Amino acid sequence: GDVSLRALDEAAAGVPIGCEGLCVLETFQGSRTPVTDPLARGALVGLTLRHTAAHVWRALLEAICLGTRAAVEALEAATGEPPAVLLAAGGATRSPLWLQ
User: Fold this and answer.
1) Which UniProt keywords apply (predicted)?
2) CB of 64 closer than 8 Å to CB of 28
3) Which CATH number fits the domain 5-99, given the four candidates 3.40.190.10, 3.40.50.11540, 3.30.420.40, 3.50.50.60?
4) Summary mean pLDDT of the chain
């Protein structure tokens, strides 16, 4: 059935950081900043029968956030200073879990 993103967020908030061993490589559309590789492929690793949709959702969010952190760190390395502001826009801004 239909599961809302709000419901997934609420369920994923109860999943421990690290998703109990479930890991996502979020390069399903290739890789971008800081390493450009259009042929990169995503992966879901460590999936077991005890993992739920909430685990998968949280693992995706953690992977996207890690990629964002890598891009911010590359920007800081290139400019010599951290960005003064990080601005989030779009649908992700409706997810308190994603923005934490």
Assistant:
1) Kinase, Transferase
2) no
3) 3.30.420.40
4) 93
